[in-house]
Request: fold
Amino acid sequence: MSWFEKLMPSRIRTEGTSKRNVPEGLWGKCDACNAVLYRAELERSLDVCPKCGHHMRIGARKRLETFLDESPREEIADTIEPVDILKFKDSKKYKDRISASQKATGEKDALIVIKGSVQGLPVVACAFEFSFMGGSMGSVVGERFVRAVNVSIEDNIPLVCFSASGGARMQEALISLFQMAKTSAALARLSNRGIPFVSVLTDPTMGGVSASLAMLGDIHIAEPNALIGFAGPRVIEQTVGETLPEGFQRSEFLLEHGAIDMIVDRREMRDRIANLLAMLTDQQLAKEVDVVSVSATPAGSVEE
Amino acid sequence: MNPDFLEFEQPIAELEAKIDELRYVGDDSEVNLSDEIARLQTKCKSLTQSIFSNLNAWQISQLARHPKRPHMLDYVDLLFTDFEELHGDRAFADDHAIVGGLARLEGIPVMVIGHQKGRDTTQKIYRNFGMPRPEGYRKAMRLMQMAEKFNVPVLTFIDTPGAYPGVGAEERGQSEAIARNLLIMSELRTPIVATVIGEGGSGGALAIGVADWVMMLEYSTYSVISPEGCASILWKSAEKASDAAEALGITSARLKQLDLIDEIIPEPLGGAHRNIEEAAAAMKKSLLDTLSRQRSLEVDELVAQRYQHLMKFGDFKE
Reply:
């Protein structure tokens, strides 16, 4: 506590201490514009700042819950769990890192796969959990992704993947590098069957994930201002020895350089992807949903 | 200290310098020093044997990047005949960090693709230290697809610190170029044999490394990240590179034990740079054996096996 806070009468001291009756997280703050935001409103706008449009990072489960129709939903490959076959130990044991991440996120590993539908169109959707060891791809992520692809192939339904990852998981060493080949090989099969794969790149998508499954979509969609690239900006800065230009490796930069098809606001994601998939699979979206008018409505009313 | 020798090779360097000295003296003088020279040579050999029988992962990773380590084009000269280099990705540029072309291996036409590092400073810069840009991977992809079209096996040679981390490389889609190669190689309808000859650096290595059969020269390394990079991220100190090398298990012996690679090609005593002819001969034998096995397979079978092999990578419980 600073000297200034000590001076304050206790009843106006609210910041920083585990204070009284204020429910946890009633208020949130935008990381970009610092606007204080009402949690419920932020929820409704899918964690996009209503003031400045900044897209905050969101968890995998929340991502899929807001993306998919309420039913049907069936989680795939959730029984697969990580093991530490190399007995990898850096400053911490990999085993301990796994359990800490599992405890913190409530997830077994960094990818979640759910079979469901978007506006009535059946899809397999997967999302990376960035708060699980930086969304890094190891054996479990690779295997779950392949199973997602296989379900897409079996049921002949499109695949959508939301990536958010720092890359390959170092603690699984070369095994994690080979997940890049494994997931890409599975996508080759999906592509040969003529089944669409939409890759959504969210903040951040780097390294081994960006250099494999995330860049192999039929359609690449990025959220605004997401960091997307192969090498991290710090590594590049050290290599070339100069400061990087503003906006380097951001979604807008990738769009400009032809790496992605479009940048889509999270609040419109459902509708835009449904619209694209409906065309690619020559289907009509359910009557009651008029794509154009829904995507034009203000934030918050996207969800039924 | 002799810059052509690594720290743990210095005792060998000293002994060899002594032998050379004696030879020089021996030529001029009346005294017959040949017995003494022979004795020292035997000693040198057993010293090398004892040093090399006990290398740790960090020493091996230094050997993989030894200043004298043979590079891809050194082997091309010894392994193949009729080499015709093919240039360019047909879209942007010719990347000098990846060399590709047609050649014959004992008469069999093959497509050769590999990273090339430079020897002297000018060459190093010309080759960008063996770090490809997207156009390098796209050139590789073009040549692989050509090989598929004409039923020519693809032989790749891996020796890179990694894909180049640069502004232009990112602008032109480094990630996409690597990813696309992984996909194309996984279903290429012709045999692919990959050999790690030096440094197998991460995605930049794997981008020409998806294969039916993956071999490593004994003292080469293959890793998801360099020991230095790993140490600075996980240990917050590049000094811990030796610990990181150990933990990452980047050596051929460890990776074979984990079933991540298929074959180790033994190197001559003291490493490939001490006798490149011998190293190349061992490599040639392995390449020929592998090719004869793979060329006897129906191509559908070959591609199906490659797929199954890729799907097996990964350890988890269910």
DSSP finds eleven helices and ten strands in chain A.
